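Job type: complex structure
Entries:
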Amino acid sequence: MSDPNASPRIRHVLVRTSHPGNIGSAARAIRTMGFARLNLVRPHRFPDPEADALAAGAPGVLDAAQVHAQLADALSGCTLVLGLSARRRGVTLPELDPRAAARQAWQAASAGQQVALVFGNEQSGLDNAELAHCHAMVRIPSVEDYGSLNLAQAVQVMAYELRQASLEGTPQALPEPGDPPAEMAQMEQFFAHLSQALHDIDFHKGRSPRTIELRLRKLFMRARPDQRELRILHGILAEAQRVKRDSQA
Amino acid sequence: MSDPNASPRIRHVLVRTSHPGNIGSAARAIRTMGFARLNLVRPHRFPDPEADALAAGAPGVLDAAQVHAQLADALSGCTLVLGLSARRRGVTLPELDPRAAARQAWQAASAGQQVALVFGNEQSGLDNAELAHCHAMVRIPSVEDYGSLNLAQAVQVMAYELRQASLEGTPQALPEPGDPPAEMAQMEQFFAHLSQALHDIDFHKGRSPRTIELRLRKLFMRARPDQRELRILHGILAEAQRVKRDSQA
């Protein structure tokens, strides 16, 4: 179940971002997943029309974004700091994948903690000094030979996993779309009609209808027709039967 | 462990994309996750320098991208077609979340099937006619009050989930029970036959066939007939047509 108090405790921190467009796209990305706190450490250009354009009106996220001179300031109050990074020699931080990181972050936020996800510069990522502010590193499992996710897309992946973490445990229990599903007595009526119609149009030509009927039954059971679809199917069968009767009249 | 033969069986299909930059970003997104097949249906501009710039050199993806006039052409050979879409009134496709969809797609690809993920236009998404080519809908669980993911970011989320599915351990890759599943060109032949047969037996009685045909299409897409089932259905249609012809003779 999504805890409405947990989301505001999670902040996304962008460090030394070069392209204002990425700030806008990141704002939109976190907003679609239910987050609103964006912290910017020494952005190259902000505010900027390109950021506004790519935020696609994500209500309020850019207006409320805080700008900081130092990463430490952006992390004020946080008890869990996770830095997104490619694998790096000489860094001894524990490494989490996005799913595990999101679960840990959501759990911490649900328990009242402040949590930060930190994203480095587009070209160089987080440097070692910046990673030293983090409790763990999060590596998005990209392929070895081409690992470079766009910054805003890395933000999207993490925000998506946070959203999934927030929904875990929420029963899916979606209302059935469309018309009411056909119940079994209606399905049996349909199968009986199908069987009669195939007989009437002499589909089987003296062979046993059993195998074919069983196959058709499986097919339509699998499709789980709703009541309106079943009416259409009945209509088609009735029409084929009528054509046959007319041909004999 | 990732099955190296499964990735090439998964294609990402972008339909009526307005912004070439999104094509480039999508190319980069899938490439980071180990995929390379991009199919474009009536892109507004392609090739385009903006697409090249945002692909960030994703080796070969844009060069190898195929362009199609019709969605059906882009889906040729596919036995599983998943359409990304917001929830929609009146659409009765089964709805999967990205994780469940990715697992199903990866399993199908590992079992040798061709799989397509279909993404609609930036403003309007997939229309109902386009969704009628899909076996199921995938909904990214964005928040209710601001649901609009950028196209390339939706591609990134799905490609990321596919990558995660590929890393979850080799699926058991159970052979599909029964006959090989029908591929999309065979489904189109069936729909054409169905349409002709309904016309021949005068099912529509002057009403427009469009709504009924769309409903039947959804029903049979959902059922995912195998090749033998499709032969039976063709047989029934042919028999109904024969009866009609005989009645006129």
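Summary: Chain B touches chain A through 59 residues (CB under 8 Å). The radius of gyration of chain B is 19 Å.
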